[in-house]
Design brief:
Largest sheet: 6 strands, antiparallel
Structural class: alpha+beta
Number of helices: 9
CATH superfamily of the largest domain: Chorismate lyase-like
Number of strands: 12
Radius of gyration: 22 Å
Strand order of the largest sheet: 6-7-8-11-10-9
Distance between the termini: 35 Å
Helix content: 25-40%
Length: about 270
Amino acid sequence: MSSLSSPISPSPAAAAAVSPAGGAAPAAGAGGEAPSFSPLYQQIKGLITRSLQSGEWLPGQAIPSEHELAARFRVSQGTVRKAVDELAADNLLVRRQGKGTFVATHAEERTQYRFLRLRADSGATAVLQRRLLDCRRLRAPADVARPLGLKSGDTVVEIRRVLLSEGVPVVLDDMFLPGALFKGLSAERLSEWKGPMYRLFEAEFGVRMIRADEKIRAVAADADAAAALALAPGAPLLSVERLSYTYGDKAVELRRGLYRTDGHHYRNALS
């Protein structure tokens, strides 16, 4: 199998992080605390994640084979396979039968709407269109700066858009992004981009959303939301506030969405 990286010896830090014997390496204790132990495959998972974070393998590219990774980290292929399995379950990697393992990307159909859980009551697959309302840079108010780990007054990019299903507006989104990470993002660039927005973020700004937390509540449409969603003021809406994170649990997007639920519902699979 071809790969983008040849097997290399691990760095001193990587070598120290894994046990050649295949066991779990102890973490240094402090203040006399007993050392904690991390399974070896979890250590390898962490090392692969670091390579993803550093951009050694970019979204959509193949990673080295399990055999090459095992040689690189001086562990068994079984240990590597278990680490890769978990990264695939976390949607950071994608296995393709007969082709290898690739870095997941928001360009793939299965991940384009990974965080959007609105579904049509008819059961039809949602094909959503975008209507950009605004994109501007502003000083972050406290309630925006805080969840993004910024200081009040730091620059953020605010994007306001409507998502439509068969021409009917169903979602009003307000997104806030750290200005330092998204220099050059403009209404013109967003209007020109035809693919998923998260794909634009990872392809042109090097920011990949890998997980999100949400808070959901029922609200009544105010005049502004009612006009944007073609509803009467006071109509019921679902308010979804999403905080999306990149590697290292760094918050990089605050999104406040208002969802119509006449004809659509919010679906989440629990396990």
